[in-house]
Every structure is written in C-alpha cells, then in structure tokens.
Amino acid sequence: MRINVHLSAFLALVPCFFLAAADSNPPAGDKPAHLWSEPTDIASRDLFYGPGGQEHQPVGPFTFEKEDMNGTNPKYVVRGQDGVKWKVKLGEEARPEPAASRLVWAAGYFVDEDYFVANVQVHGIVPANVRRGAKQIGPDGFMHGVRMKRYLKGEDSTGQWAWAQNPFSGTRELNGLRIMMALINNWDLKDENNKVYDTENGRIYFVSDLGASFGTTGRDVTRAESKGNLNNYIHSTFIRRNSGDTVDFGDPSRPAMVHAFELPEFASRVHMEWIGKNVPKADCRWIGKILAQLSAAQITASFRAAGYTPDEAGAFAKVVEDRIAQLNAL
Hints:
By secondary structure, this protein is α+β, with helices and mostly antiparallel strands. Strand 5 (about 75-80) and strand 6 (about 85-90) form a beta hairpin. The chain is built from nine helices and 14 strands. It has a domain at about 155-330. The longest helix has 19 residues, at about 310-330. It has helices spanning about 5-10, 95-105, 170-185, 225, 230-235, 265-270, 280-290, 295-305, 310-330; strands at about 20, 35, 35, 60-70, 75-80, 85-90, 115-125, 140-150, 155-160, 195-200, 200-205, 240-245, 245-250, 280. A five-stranded mixed beta barrel has the order 4-5-6-8-7. The protein has a four-stranded mixed sheet with strand order 2-11-10-9. A three-stranded antiparallel sheet has the order 12-13-14.
C-alpha cells in the first residue's frame, strides 16, 4: 500500500506516526509541531498534478467572492461549481509558484495545493470594482495565466512562524527547508510568508508563498527579472561558499541597490541572508539524497504543470538536476 502524505492528507487526520515532529518536548498542553513528512513514495509521486492530484483540479465555472489585498500581486477569492473555494493569483508568480510547490512537496514538506490555469472565467468580477489587476481581467471575467490555490477542508491558520525562532531550530528538517529555498531561488523569505495550520493531530508549519522562485537570488530591478526568469535562474549562484563542515548558498541575497531607498524593506532583506548561510553539509547531503530519487521526467513535469513550454520546462529542470548533484557531491 502506497502512502502519500501531504497537507490535505494531514488535514484529513493522517496518523501522527507518519510525520516527523522536530519539537520533542512541546509546552504542556500544547499540540505537537510538524514541518516534514518522510516521502517514502518520492520516486512515484506525480509532480504534474502535485499534492492535490488530478482529482483536486479546479472545476469551473467560478463565482467571484472578494478581493484579497494581501501581498503585492492581484488576488481574488472565488468559488467553483463544486463549492470549493479558491484563491486566484495574477502576475509573474502564477507560473513559478505551482512548480516550486511541487518540488518542495516532493522533498517531504507541506505546501498549498496550487494549480496553474491557462484560462479561467470568473462570473461576477467587474474590473471597475477591484483595486488591483483590473487590466488583466477581460470581458465576462476571463483571465489568462493564473495560479489557483485550493482552500482545504479543516484549514485553520493560527498565524505565522519565524525562520529565526520556531520549534525546529537546529534540526536537519529545518535546514533541509532552508536548502530547498536556495535550490529554487525563493528569495522572498519574510516571516509573514510562513503559515501555521492547527489540526487535530498538531500544528503544521510550512512556507505558504513560493512565488518569488526560479529567477534571481534576491529582489532585482524588476519583478519580471526576479521571478520565473529562466536566464537569471541558470546564471545565478547556488553554492557561494564550500568550506569546512558548512556551506553558504547564494539565496537569499540582498536586493538590488536600486531598492536601497526603500530603507525598511532593504534592511529586512539584508537581514534574511543568514537563512542561506552556515548550513551543515551533512544536512545538504541528506536532502540531496532524497531529491536524487526524483527522475528527470518528474522534475520536468513540475514545470510543465506551471505552463512553461517543453523547452523551458526542460531547461529549468536541468538546473534543478545540477543543483541536486551539487548537494550530493558535498
């Protein structure tokens, strides 16, 4: 019997013994914390449909409910004809986020169920009545190239967690997540992008926004250069320092100097650089061994699912494969 553990399965009350909890002594009366689950089926995981599978794909037509003003990209909450609620995201993160979520999930970490949808119609959305993204909404509510995030039954967000202070500090599981962020060049590692979900089995910790991936290692001059940019991903630095028992990764790096005038934001992103530094080589090899079980076809499928052309998907996958090989060579 194959067991496929991911966020939706956990919310459906998968037994706790399948999960790796790094906090062995949580506060009295508190729930256990979970960051990672062993991907025992990694070689057979479907990275085209991802953690939600083919059965959880968005089913239209969709009806507009409200605009979500969080973050920098236009987002709208909609509901499908089957009653399932979704969050539609427009902009440059629509392609990289579904691809990133599949690779992070393949390594055993919890992620949202994200799908890239080339064309979608949302009834009831009026460009004049939304504050962001109006120019990307066509007649009769048609939108092109969107990410759709499924709201899961039992999903109850209890807040956020910090990279610097959490129940998993110092563990290989947290270090593995740091490595995964460097592998996909996710530079937007603000604490507010980290979510905690409360379930009957415990609290799930995960990175809920992976859209700033597969581009530069830090915020560049424009968003188009920083996210989902094949040329910049190919030419970015993965391992910056390899010395002793630890390595430093190139991601996250400080933002381009053009953003220095945005002092609070610039300062906060400079502070993020530590997340990619002083990572134990043993933990790099650990996550590298897990990822090495993925086939080239599986890795490529994660990018095909995100709407990239076959040539683009293959090129992105080649970078990922090379980075996995670098981890295993440490």
